[in-house]
Amino acid sequence: MSALLEVDQLEVNFGGRVSAVRGASVTVERGETHCLVGESGCGKSVTALAVMNLLARGARRSAKRLAFEGQDLTGLSDSGMAHLRGNAMAMIFQEPMTSLNPAYTVGSQMTEVLRRHKKTTQRAATDRAADLLARVGITAPGLRLGQFPHQLSGGLRQRVMIAMALMCDPKLLIADEPTTALDVTVQAQILRLLAGLQRDLGLGMLLITHDLGIVARVAHRVSVMYAGEVVESAPTAELFANPKHPYTRGLLRCVPVPGKIKRDEPLGSIPGTVPRIGPGFEGCAFRDRCDFADVTCAHAIPRHAASVAHDFLCRLPA
Ligand SMILES: Nc1ncnc2c1ncn2[C@@H]1O[C@H](COP(=O)(O)OP(=O)(O)OP(=O)(O)O)[C@@H](O)[C@H]1O
Ligand code: SF4
Ligand SMILES: [Mg+2]
């Protein structure tokens, strides 16, 4: 059976000047949580938006393969893609107000999603919305359905967003930093909720997060992005136990065991910043910050396999 989501050699350019994503490959299997990590500006959000075909105007997307359940997404019409979005594949953003409309009640927005995609009565849609609000831990769902987004706290809005994303029973959920706008205790609750839903509903999830504690706890696989490339990808335990790429090692600060990472443990900081890469760039984009860089790092870099399921992009041997 094909993977739930296959992204092979994705490229995204903005106006021919910024190569935001450069040959990135990411696969999400059914029922798997795949975490995407990397510093700010590495191309994580652009990758997620490219999958959903929600890139800003002027962006150019291409891929060797971009497929959902074996169905090619690059050849899909706008209406075909709109049908998939919010239906079989749904996305949760960092700031729920980007997706919630302040002018409509929670109930009308949630039922609208379902009625757009599935044949159903208003009554059944309202019942499902109330069930899902309860499922995401919202008390008095009937009351909340009649409220407007501004009447809810940030944490409640994010729960509503999650419930809304689940309205059509998606198989894939893409969550882009779903908790960074929230305070720390609420962040932990929301992430626990997402992890529980993923398990119970068997969702495939592409989760973008800076929180290594979360990665260690919920991810089955981790891909590390740097300057638009996936520089390392491995099953979670293997990545933490045996990081290969110097950038990954910097991010993890060589933390050896997932169980030893505390909640809210951020990515490690590495001196310097992520370069902005334009077309025609050659060699390793990390070379200005890498302790192991030598002249060969300015040329094409091989991708090595550290094991069957673990690969990395660096001249250093596996
Ligand atoms: N609309 C746009 N026009 C031009 N460049 C863009 C646009 N959107 C993103 N970029 C550029 O693409 C690169 C990747 O951005 P992206 O938002 O994917 O980073 P990110 O990894 O999600 O970072 P963060 O952790 O801060 O969310 C950055 O250099 C960014 O400036
Ligand atoms: S290719 Fe060279 S510069 Fe890049 S991470 Fe490996 S050793 Fe460092
Ligand atoms: Mg982002």
TrEMBL record:
Entry keyword set: ATP-binding, Cell membrane, Membrane, Nucleotide-binding, Transport
GO biological process annotation, one example: transmembrane transport
UniProt domain ABC transporter: residue ranges: 5-252
GO cellular component: plasma membrane
Annotated compartments: Cell inner membrane
SUPFAM superfamilies with a match to the protein in the record: P-loop containing nucleoside triphosphate hydrolases
InterPro entries: AAA+_ATPase, ABC_Ni/Peptide_Import, ABC_transporter-like_ATP-bd, Oligopep_ABC_C, P-loop_NTPase
Main location (coarse class): membrane
Any one GO molecular function term: ATP binding
A Pfam family matched in the record: oligo_HPY
Membrane topology, from the record: Peripheral membrane protein
Domain of life, per lineage: Bacteria
Family: Belongs to the ABC transporter superfamily.
NCBIfam families from the UniProt entry: oligo_HPY (TIGR01727)
Protein name (record): ABC transporter ATP-binding protein
